[in-house]
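Consider the tokenized backbone below.
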């Protein structure tokens, strides 16, 4: 089954062609970073306008790279939440129009669930998918959740953040340091040459006996530290600060993920979401899981950040569950945009 995926939940417009939920034929992403960088964060109205301009060219490029025509698509999967309503609506309405045009089914996909299932999408030959049940850590600028995954569509939230998401905290610190947008990317880059033990920032709720997260205190601690200085850190001082902030976030994420996997008696941890592209997090998660005798699966960076490959991969399972009659025509004008959509509901 050939599935066209469309993603427009926030600040990246993406389209992908995936076969049978695994084989990625194309995965095109148009980033809006240059648009939002001057403001230090995503401006929803500007994001929506950029999606309007980019969505058709991105879809055309994805089809061309996959060497297929729109009429050869068997179904369309589109992100319908959670996300910015204006951004979501652009992708959804285009998806409806295309599905109606070719008389093929359309399904709405949960963005966070798509991240969680990204490790099951193949981008290389010889790829060996993870197994169920598994523990998924979805960590990004908007979400930080630990989810037990027993199969496609079978999710149980084990723990989540009570305030800022991990990526959100890193971005806010990066903005305070004047590093640019998105701040987490700059912290990752600068922290690579810094001393992660230079400054002792709090690891909130690390040993509270549950699997909840809290990163607002870390952000406040960094702001307090900066308030005591008469200058913005530069050079080695800046690298040490970035490394120390990053280490505080990574320590909590890794500790909670491994502890939750042990508590749930799961032998596999899936690291997903935009922050899973962070090099320090990937390295420490792999090492901690190896030490605990747990398999760790980290998807390639192309499937970590927002992308339509993961949307098409997850959408395949909803489309393949339709009856033969349902697969022969368009029937989903009721797919709508949802700003909030808890996993598993």
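A designed sequence for it:
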């Amino acid at each position: 089954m050939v599935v066209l995926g469309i993603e427009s939940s926030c600040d990246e417009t993406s389209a992908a062609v995936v076969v049978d939920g695994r084989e990625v034929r194309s995965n095109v992403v148009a980033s809006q970073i240059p648009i939002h960088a001057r403001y230090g964060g995503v401006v929803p109205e500007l994001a929506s306008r950029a999606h309007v301009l980019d969505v058709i060219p991105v879809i055309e490029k994805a089809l061309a790279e996959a060497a297929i025509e729109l009429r050869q698509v068997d179904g369309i999967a589109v992100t319908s939440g959670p996300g910015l309503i204006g951004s979501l609506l652009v992708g959804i309405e285009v998806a409806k129009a295309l599905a109606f045009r070719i008389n093929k089914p359309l399904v709405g996909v949960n963005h966070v669930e798509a991240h969680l299932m990204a490790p099951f999408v193949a981008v290389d030959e010889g790829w060996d998918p993870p197994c169920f049940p598994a523990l998924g850590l979805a960590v990004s600028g908007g979400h930080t959740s630990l989810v037990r995954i027993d199969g496609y569509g079978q999710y149980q939230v084990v723990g989540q953040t009570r305030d800022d998401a991990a990526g959100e905290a890193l971005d806010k610190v990066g903005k305070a340091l004047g590093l640019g947008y998105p701040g987490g990317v700059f912290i990752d880059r600068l922290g690579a040459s810094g001393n992660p033990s230079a400054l002792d920032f709090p690891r909130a709720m690390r040993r509270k006996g549950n699997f909840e997260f809290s990163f607002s205190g870390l952000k406040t601690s960094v702001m307090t530290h900066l308030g005591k200085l008469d200058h913005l850190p530069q050079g080695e001082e800046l690298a040490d600060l970035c490394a120390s902030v990053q280490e505080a976030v990574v320590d909590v994420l890794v500790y909670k993920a491994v502890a939750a996997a042990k508590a749930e008696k799961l032998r596999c941890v899936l690291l997903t979401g935009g922050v899973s592209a962070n090099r320090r997090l990937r390295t420490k998660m792999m090492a901690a899981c190896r030490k605990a005798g747990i398999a760790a699966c980290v998807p390639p960076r192309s499937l970590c950040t927002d992308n339509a490959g993961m949307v098409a991969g997850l959408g395949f399972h909803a489309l393949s569950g339709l009856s033969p009659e349902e697969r022969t025509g368009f029937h989903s004008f009721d797919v709508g945009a949802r700003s909030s959509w808890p996993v598993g509901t």
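The chain is about 40% helix and 20% strand.
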